[in-house]
């Protein structure tokens, strides 16, 4: 009865919300373009709409919420052996091993949040305007990511040097931290949903009428509180920023356990540390990607960056802590070169597009003038706008080729686990599914946004990710 009452009130409020939006659009003399609704009008790979808006998001929410702590349980109590976990599985055993929130875990989370929020606000940085939104807004971001990233590591190491804590403290409390973050982030997702429906920051807010989809996907595109971009805070200063310090904790914990660190741990941690540094060096470009510029801020993004990154992205390092593998020099350097090359290609692809749009094509790509398509589109304020679609460099190889080196890099930092089973390679498996699905979503969005210009681009660059294959 309570659920029935809730959904009845939800449908009523959503109807009022949509009516108000229609009135406002009519006053402005503008009509919301269809490409802004692509996420509910069409689905990647031709999935039925009801599956895309209800069943699929519900499956993702339920499975990921339990999967995040489960990864810790498998890694910590079953030596990372998924087959052993399944063969010995019993509900009573899993419940007895399932971590619970603790005061120390909450303290660690709280002080990390305070540190990153303080650095975001206090460290100087250039203010950058992001891409124009469907409603014609331009969110502002503070570009101080590199300084915040380096200061975070210096401050955490200094605190350990002064005896405030042991650097292995994150690993020692890992299960409790992951469960605490999961519960709190789920609560925040509800707050984001209600804020988006009843107090949106601006006109970039929309609903589908499906509570499950709106909770999962989010209502607002760029929510703010006190002028702070919640997307930048969550994605860049909490999720991505915690990645490397967690790996440092694993690194020092292995040294604490065995009196030495292995070259497998060093290689995996080093490649990820450089990758995250590259991310902050390129932070301005990230604000034009699908995560920030197009995906709304709900469970998919918020829970993903605050819970999935610390539990899933660090799995290889988590597994290596208690599996001290020493790699042969040939294996070590082969993976090292492979990983560094993937980082470079990933960075260069993103940098090429950013450079062309910044200079309006007055630059060189691979030593030649870039080939481009001027694609036009309209926003809900009725204005005609344009973007340059690059056809040269890596963007002439495939329309979403930049995903390929990212997949290869995730494989590179997993390879130090050698034949350690499925768990250390879970991230690269997950990322493959995510990016293939994302490329499908991006194709739909761009098709509606650019129309005939996108078809011209597809004719010039026929493959989606891998030339000759896909």
Question: Care to describe what's here?
Answer:
With 470 residues, this protein is mostly helical. Helix content is 63%, strand content 6%. The chain contains 20 helices and six strands. The protein has helices at 2-28, 38-41, 49-77, 82-87, 91-97, 103-122, 145-161, 169-172, 174-198, 211-217, 230-258, 263-281, 283-286, 290-293, 299-313, 315-320, 329-359, 403-412, 426-450, 452-460; strands at residues 126-129, 140-143, 224-225, 228-229, 372-378, 384-390. The strands form three sheets. It has a two-stranded antiparallel ribbon with strand order 1-2. The protein has a two-stranded antiparallel ribbon with strand order 3-4. It has a two-stranded antiparallel sheet with strand order 5-6. A hairpin with a 5-residue loop joins strand 5 (372-378) and strand 6. Helix 3 runs parallel beside helix 15 (299-313), helix 6 crosses helix 11 and helix 18 (403-412) packs antiparallel against helix 19. The radius of gyration is 23 Å and the shape is globular. The relative contact order is 0.12.
List keywords for this structure.
470 residues; mainly alpha; two-stranded antiparallel ribbon; two-stranded antiparallel sheet
What Rg do the Cα atoms give?
23 Å
Helix content: 55-70%
Low-confidence stretches: 21-40
Strand content: 5-15%
The SSE order reads HHHHHHEEHHHHEEHHHHHHHEEHHH
